[in-house]
């Protein structure tokens, strides 16, 4: 299980970097990677907390609202909309796909991914310390 | 009317695939009898429903895309909608119902993967009107999000001009000329959606949760032809079948009842 959550987090960071790299050259690629970066961070968190991961996007967002707050749901929903516009063209448009909005969401996504990472690291550290003190 | 059955089959076929087709192909694909198919196609040509032209030894048939063809399409759409996966159907009907007061919308078309597969990831609605803006689409966000959060179905909204090409992109689930019919169960159900959404978002949770159950109790009563005199009557009747203790149960029962209301 430990490997799984670390793998997902690695993906999240990799995708986030790809989103940043493509911000100037390809908005579509950037929007696509950004959604999956946050989704991977959420999945990593669920693995870490031993929460069963739903296969359906919406159920995953709903579960993220329950465990990580309503803001997480809204971030995922917004990024999904941007991703749909990026991948399929004429979609939804309740969040306009442009560089400014993408930049704004990139910052939010990065903040969120770091938060998940810190949370996992802190908990892992705490767990390790507990185990060490028990062994002593 | 003579040959009506063949005519309906051919019409459905031509509407579904609007390419020009050889008569022989149409007969084979619609599995209609040869004589009745020829008679029906001749009648359709005389009535101006199709155009026929010679092509080598064969004859090519093309549907005349006008308001008559469109009326037939709306009729078929109504049947196709009723045949959809119940969750998709209810979601589509509720979405259409929620936009009834929007004067700018001329029609809503359901399209995308749902028309090909029983299983679907999301529902795509093409909202048609003259020069709809992104801001207008954003104004539908409230309705979209409510349905999405209660039904657990992702709704993608798209906009387009009200024209034949767009109307033929999928199943037309709403047209501006539709009458708003009085239906107590539907009214209560839409109120349930409002309260359930608030409860999901944890806005005044307890009140929202209880009101959602109350609305659902009324809906359930009406569906079962029980007319409650008081709120307690409705709740009592509802509680005989359902015990709702948390938000997930509320959503589950809400969707189950929604499928019945909007079937």
Quick recap:
Chain A is an all-alpha fold and 136 residues long. Chain A has helices at 2-21, 27-48, 57-68, 70-88, 99-135. The radius of gyration of chain A is 16 Å and the shape is elongated.
What does this 3D model show about the protein?
The complex is a heterodimer of chains A (136) and B (263). Chain A is mainly alpha-helical. Helix content of chain A is 81%, strand content 0%. Chain A is built from five helices and no strands. Chain A is elongated. Chain B is of the alpha+beta class. Chain B has three domains: 4-63, Winged helix-like DNA-binding domain superfamily/Winged helix DNA-binding domain (Arc Repressor Mutant, subunit A, Orthogonal Bundle), CATH 1.10.10; 85-175, Alpha-Beta Plaits (2-Layer Sandwich); 184-261, no CATH class. Chain B has a four-stranded mixed β-sheet. In chain B, strands 1-3-2 form a three-stranded antiparallel β-sheet. In chain B, helix 1 (4-16) packs across helix 3 (34-46), helix 5 (86-98) runs antiparallel to helix 7 and helix 10 (205-223) packs parallel to helix 12. Chain B is elongated, with a radius of gyration of 23 Å. Chains A and B meet through helix 3 and helix 4 of A and helix 6, helix 7 and strand 6 of B.
Task: Provide keyphrases for this structure.
heterodimer, A: 136 residues, mainly alpha, 5 helices, 81% helix, elongated, B: 263 residues, alpha+beta, Arc Repressor Mutant, subunit A, Alpha-Beta Plaits, four-stranded mixed β-sheet, three-stranded antiparallel β-sheet, 7 strands, 55% helix, 14% strand
Q: How many strands, which pairing sense, and closed or not: the largest β-sheet of chain A?
A: none
Assign an overall shape of chain B: elongated
Radius of gyration of chain B: 23 Å
Q: H/E element string of chain B?
A: HEHHEEHHEEHHEHEHHHH
* Overall geometry of chain A: elongated
Bin the strand percentage of chain B.
5-15%
Topology readout:
The complex is a heterodimer of chains A (136) and B (263).
Chain A: H1 2-21, H2 27-48, H3 57-68, H4 70-88, H5 99-135
Helix pairs in contact in A: 1-2, 1-5, 2-4, 2-5, 3-4, 4-5
Chain B: H1 4-16, E1 21-22, H2 23-30, H3 34-46, E2 50-55, E3 58-63, H4 67-82, H5 86-98, E4 107-111, E5 122-128, H6 134-139, H7 141-151, E6 154-160, H8 164-167, E7 171-175, H9 184-200, H10 205-223, H11 231-239, H12 247-261
Helix pairs in contact in B: 1-2, 1-3, 5-7, 5-12, 7-9, 9-10, 9-12, 10-11, 10-12
């Amino acid at each position: 299980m430990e490997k799984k959550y670390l793998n997902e987090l690695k993906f999240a960071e990799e995708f986030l970097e790809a989103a940043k790299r493509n911000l100037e050259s390809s908005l579509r690629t950037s929007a696509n990677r950004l959604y999956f970066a946050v989704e991977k961070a959420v999945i990593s968190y669920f693995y870490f907390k031993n929460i069963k991961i739903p296969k359906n996007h919406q159920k995953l967002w709903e579960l993220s609202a329950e465990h990580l707050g309503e803001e997480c749901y809204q971030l995922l929903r917004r990024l999904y909309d941007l991703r749909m516009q990026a991948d399929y063209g004429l979609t939804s448009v309740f969040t306009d796909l442009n560089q400014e909005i993408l930049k704004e969401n990139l910052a939010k996504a990065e903040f969120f991914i770091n938060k998940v990472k810190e949370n996992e690291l802190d908990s892992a550290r705490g767990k390790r310390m507990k185990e060490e003190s028990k062994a002593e | 009317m003579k040959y009506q059955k063949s005519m309906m089959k051919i019409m459905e076929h031509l509407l579904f695939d609007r390419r020009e087709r050889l008569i022989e192909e149409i007969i084979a694909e619609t599995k209609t009898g040869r004589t009745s198919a020829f008679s029906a196609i001749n009648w359709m040509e005389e009535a101006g429903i199709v155009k026929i032209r010679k092509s080598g030894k064969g004859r090519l048939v093309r549907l005349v895309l006008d308001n008559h063809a469109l009326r037939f399409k709306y009729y078929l759409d109504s049947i196709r909608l009723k045949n959809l996966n119940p969750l998709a159907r209810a979601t589509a009907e509720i979405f259409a119902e929620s936009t009834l007061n929007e004067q700018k919308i001329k029609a809503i078309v359901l399209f995308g993967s749902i028309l090909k597969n029983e299983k679907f990831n999301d529902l795509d609605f093409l909202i048609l009107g003259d020069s709809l803006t992104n801001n207008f689409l954003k104004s539908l966000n409230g309705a979209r999000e409510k349905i999405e959060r209660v039904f657990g179905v992702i709704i993608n909204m798209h906009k387009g001009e009200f024209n034949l090409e767009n109307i033929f992109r999928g199943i037309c689930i709403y047209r501006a000329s539709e009458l708003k019919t009085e239906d107590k169960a539907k009214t209560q159900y839409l109120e349930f959606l409002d309260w359930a959404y608030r409860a999901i978002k944890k806005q005044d949770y307890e009140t929202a949760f209880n009101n959602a159950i109350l609305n659902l109790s009324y809906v359930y009563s009406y569906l079962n032809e029980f007319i409650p005199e008081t709120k307690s009557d409705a709740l009592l009747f509802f509680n005989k079948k359902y015990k709702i203790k948390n938000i997930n149960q509320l959503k589950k029962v809400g969707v189950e009842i929604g499928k019945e209301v909007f079937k």
